[in-house]
Amino acid sequence: MTHDIPKIPDTPACAGALEVARAYCSPALLNHSVRAYVWAAAYGSEHGIGFDPELMWVAAMFHDIGLVSEFDNRTVGFDHASGHVAWVYGAGAGWPVPRRERLVEAVVAHMLDEVDVAADPEGFLLERSTSMDISGRHTDDFPTEFKAEVLKRWPRLGIAGEFLDCFREQALHKPDSSPVASLRNGIADRILGNALDR
């Protein structure tokens, strides 16, 4: 099984999403967002899962934007806050409402336990890739050499500790949010034990 580093889609919407992510995300969170796309696109291509590269790139850039202070929403979880930001971005990019709704679905889906690949391929791939990058699930999806090359291009820069701090902060203020359930289910140990950090 061989993998090539997927190319970033070359569209104005993708360039703009990267510009926004660079402006608001820490370097560690930005690299995590890029890796989320790379793992997702590589897995989708390898397994014959049809997906929309532009939509998935934009979803990857915005899936965690609700964790940053400028977009943190004190009434809804970060995944839903991220979805709202993505919807607004899609409107600014001129996307029709159904495409914006698909974008929101993919963003929110990254925190679900299971996503139906037939109904939401981008959400399925994003859930799988973000789970790998943050909590170490599915790290056997790719050969060691491919993982090493991705991490060389987009290093982790301490994402484990930063992300765990963000989740704890979310849980403190939003007791019904997805980070609360994740922390209750032991995600802290999985984040700190992620094989990608070794």
From TrEMBL:
Residues 25-127 form the HD/PDEase domain. SMART domains: HDc. It comes from the Bacteria. Gene3D superfamilies: Hypothetical protein af1432. Transmembrane segments: none annotated. CDD domains: HDc. This is HD domain-containing protein. It comes from Streptomyces dangxiongensis. The lineage of its organism: Bacteria, Bacillati, Actinomycetota, Actinomycetes, Kitasatosporales.
